[in-house]
Amino acid sequence: MMKYFVCIKQVPGITEVRIDPKTNTLIREGIPSIMNPHDKHAVQLAIDLKAQHGGEIITLSMGPPQAEAVLRESLAMGADKAYLLTDRAFAGADTLATSHTLALAVKKILNESEDNNKYVVICGVQAIDGDTAQVGPEMAEDLGIPQITYVLNFEIKGDKAISERAFRPEEHVIIESALPVLISVVKEINHPSYPGLDGILNAYEKKEVHPLNAEDLGAKKENIGLTGSMTEVWKIFIPERKGEHKILEGPIEQQTSELIEHLKEDNLL
Length: 269
What we know:
Strand order of the largest sheet: 11-10-9-12-8-1-6-7-13
Helix content: 25-40%
Order of helices and strands: EEEEEHEHEHEHEEEEHEHH
Distance between the termini: 62 Å
Number of helices: 7
Number of domains: 1
Structural class: alpha/beta
Largest sheet: 9 strands, mixed
């Protein structure tokens, strides 16, 4: 049976983030959290693929206990199973340690399955709080499977995956790969549907979010959390805005002349 693994992340639900100057981390206390918007498109793609080919949708998220909320949302949308990777040992993970932990979860689930070669891992192209777009590709390397990023369209034909990828803004390429494969999708791939009342009720009354800790995954301490992270944040800050915004008005010729004068004043021309 085909399996669709979808990685989702809980992120701050605000446009302006606050940063703790002492720890160089995002301040999350008192801030509403949401499912990473790109990940909703990943869940919707899994739902569409299941409708066409059958199979099972499995969502994964690594985070504190409150991250269960976004997994419940994925169940309400139509996911079949959800796993929350939560353990203090996972804290402080960079993208490498995070991708390794998620890969361990996929391997564990596959090892417990009879058919462990028919699967697709689907990620949102990036998370809005980090914007690194690294977890998906690093996860593919850990799993030892092909990866295709910035996917605009995706379909499965037999044992092959066909992806349309945004190579450049003006250039798209079609890539054919064997299964299994990991893809990261852009928002243009679909329009996520809102969960219906039945889906919401099922997500909370009939479906479960299964917790997995470091011991469950057989994780080695040196490969997870802060210990397994190869990057160190020295400083993170919001750049100070310099100067004032200027709105140009009038005919386009007049605006162009004024713009040129402003650029000259700023020594940009």
